[in-house]
């Protein structure tokens, strides 16, 4: 435990230093309408000229794209037909999750995707497992029986390379990059999700308090995503259900100033999604659920145990040395 704790602290220090180092860069943003979804949803349809395509139980109304109705065993999705070749981008999602079910009697959640594959049904919030790319999940139901210090609904992110499976029974914990709790069900005000990918740094924020202020959820450098993937949104219900609605998805192209060193570092073309220092992230997550007091006492008792062993060693050595001297004289 102390070794994992030290590695976790070291990783956090490096991550924060890299994050703060990026704050001085200026950015300009431009709305990309061909990759955006908004009222009156004229670009949604089955024709080859449409920009967005529905799948499963998803349907369009005048007010939203409903991925699933508040009914059991439904799944639906909406996918962009046009691959995104932007190097730096930002997507802002206006969504709503609501239904008749009481707390912990609703499910299962929705996902925002940037993946190589599109229009493939599956168990991961209505999308295929072993996906290739980025998934940001708004998970509304805890499948794992024992949850310590994790409140649902919970927002988390995952990067897949086509071979990594989402662990549904453990709510994606083994592969998550980080996340935050977000009480998004049955809100009377708007709820928003913010995903930014700049300079191989992934940032996720939420605005769910009706104050028009973003709250940090995830900020991680070293995320490598290829260009040319598709944006989409999906949702699924099981024995429990909810309405999962997308009101809008707006994609912005970001113009970012880069130093010569940064340009040289990013010359290599990314072909497979990956995350730097993933092992350190997993080490930090393996300690999740322990409170600060629990960690303190674990480290304290570990140190006391080390001191006890040192004292015992010194005593044994002292007795051995004394007996040796008696035999010598």
From TrEMBL:
Question: Taking every annotated instance into account, which residue ranges of this chain make up the domain L-type lectin-like?
Answer: 29-254
Q: Which Gene3D superfamilies match?
A: 2.60.120.200
UniProt key word Glycosyltransferase: no
Where is the signal peptide, in residue numbers? 1-21
The record's Gene Ontology biological-process terms are: endoplasmic reticulum to Golgi vesicle-mediated transport
Q: Which GO terms describe its molecular function?
A: D-mannose binding; metal ion binding
Which InterPro entries has this protein been placed in?
ConA-like_dom_sf, Intracellular_Lectin-GPT, Lectin_leg
Keywords, comma-separated and alphabetical: Disulfide bond, Glycoprotein, Golgi apparatus, Lectin, Membrane, Metal-binding, Signal, Transmembrane, Transmembrane helix
Quote a single Gene Ontology cellular component term: Golgi membrane
Q: Which subcellular locations apply to this protein?
A: Endomembrane system; Golgi apparatus membrane
The protein in question is named Lectin, mannose-binding 2-like a isoform X2
SUPFAM superfamilies in the cross-refs: Concanavalin A-like lectins/glucanases (SSF49899)
Organism, as annotated = Pundamilia nyererei
Give the lineage: Eukaryota, Metazoa, Chordata, Craniata, Vertebrata
User: A Pfam family this protein belongs to?
Assistant: Lectin_leg-like
Gene (name only): lman2la
Q: Where are the transmembrane segments?
A: 293-317
Q: How does it sit in the membrane?
A: Single-pass type I membrane protein; Single-pass membrane protein
């Amino acid at each position: 435990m102390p070794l994992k704790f030290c590695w976790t602290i070291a990783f956090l220090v490096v991550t924060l230093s890299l994050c703060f180092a990026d704050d001085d860069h200026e950015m300009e943003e431009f709305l990309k309408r061909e990759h955006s979804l908004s009222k009156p949803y004229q670009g949604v349809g089955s024709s080859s000229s449409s920009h967005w395509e529905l799948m499963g139980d998803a349907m369009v109304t005048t007010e939203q794209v409903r991925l699933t109705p508040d009914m059991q065993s439904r799944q639906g999705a909406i996918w962009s037909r046009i691959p995104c070749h932007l190097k730096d981008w930002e997507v802002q999602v206006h969504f709503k999750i609501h239904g008749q079910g009481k707390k912990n009697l609703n499910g299962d959640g929705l996902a925002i995707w940037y993946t190589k594959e599109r229009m493939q049904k599956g168990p991961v919030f209505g999308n295929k497992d072993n996906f290739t790319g980025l998934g940001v999940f708004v998970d509304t139901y805890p499948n794992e029986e024992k949850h310590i210090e994790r409140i649902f609904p919970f927002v988390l992110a995952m990067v897949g390379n086509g071979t990594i499976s989402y662990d549904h029974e453990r709510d994606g914990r083994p592969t998550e990059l980080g996340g935050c709790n977000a009480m998004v069900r049955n809100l009377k005000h708007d709820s928003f999700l913010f995903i930014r990918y700049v300079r191989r740094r992934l940032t996720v924020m939420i605005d769910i308090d009706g104050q028009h202020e973003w709250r940090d959820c995830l900020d991680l450098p070293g995320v490598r995503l290829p260009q040319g993937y598709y944006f989409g949104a999906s949702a699924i219900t099981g024995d429990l259900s909810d309405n999962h609605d997308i009101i809008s998805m707006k994609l912005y192209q970001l113009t970012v100033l880069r130093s010569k060193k940064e340009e040289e570092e990013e010359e290599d073309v990314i072909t497979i999604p990956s995350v730097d220092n993933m092992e350190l992230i997993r080490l930090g997550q393996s300690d999740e659920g322990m409170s600060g007091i629990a960690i303190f006492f674990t480290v304290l008792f570990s140190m006391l145990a080390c001191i006890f062993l040192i004292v015992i060693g010194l005593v044994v050595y002292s007795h051995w040395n004394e007996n040796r001297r008696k035999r010598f004289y």
